[in-house]
Amino acid sequence: MKVSFTDRVRTAFAPPEYLMPPLAGIDLSSSGVKAVRLERGPYGLVLARYADVPLANGAFANGDVVDRVAVVGAVASAARIARVSAVTAALPEAKSYLFEAVALGEKKSQWVTSVEQHVAELVPLPPQLSVFDIVPVGRTEKQETRVVGVGF
User: Taking a C-beta distance cutoff of 8 angstroms, is the pair 95, 151 a contact?
Assistant: First the structure.
């Protein structure tokens, strides 16, 4: 594998580690929790740490978490072994609900409060068990903010 001059310069003058946290991933399945941590080396990404923590039978049923304590413990253990402190999460689409709404206010915090009052109508889940996020997509004729959101 040939390494270009640009790659060598980028490696030699890389930003400090606190500006470029390592890449990490966690996979949660019915059989267990797997975690990986990748670090940048002189020739690209390298597997730095790996963890595989099995789950007890019955922790999952039909794709849903049954034994929350066991799953949380396994995720925490895998994260500790692989030295993972933050990851980007991907949730199953089957448990998500897209919605459109009109929100009052000028800032995102005001839009969230406005949508929060109607989230039970928009997301068919109990409000105390769901989370949501919104993104502004335009304005109405009355100058209200039109938002698109997703609830889990």
Answer: no
H/E element, 75: helix 68-82
Q: Which long-range contacts (CB under 8 A, 24 or more apart) does 20-25 make?
A: 21/85, 21/86, 22/48, 24/82, 24/84, 24/85, 24/86, 24/87, 25/87
pLDDT tens track, the chain, 152 positions: 566 777 777 777 777 766 666 788 888 888 889 999 998 888 888 999 999 999 888 888 777 788 889 889 999 999 999 998 888 777 777 778 888 988 888 888 888 888 888 888 888 887 777 888 889 898 888 888 899 988 88
- DSSP state letters, 30-71: SSEEEEEEEEEETTEEEEEEEEEEE--TTSEETTEES-HHHH
Residue 124 Cα to chain centre, angstroms: 21
Is the whole model's pTM more than 0.85, yes or no?
A: no
Give the bridge partners for 33, in sequence order.
28, 53
